[in-house]
Amino acid sequence: MIKVLIGSLVFLIDRFYKDRPYPRFYVLETVARVPYFAYLSVLHFYETLGSWRKADLLKIHFAESWNELHHLLIMESLGGSEYWIDRFVSRHVAILYYWITVVMYLVTPKTAYYFAELVERHAFHSYDEFLKSKGEELKKLPAPEVAISYYRDGDLYMFDEFQMTHLPAERRPKVDNLYDVFVAIREDEMEHVKTLVACQEPEERIALDSPHTQALESA
Question: Please, what are the domains in the chain?
Answer without folding.
Answer: 2-212 (1.20.1260.140)
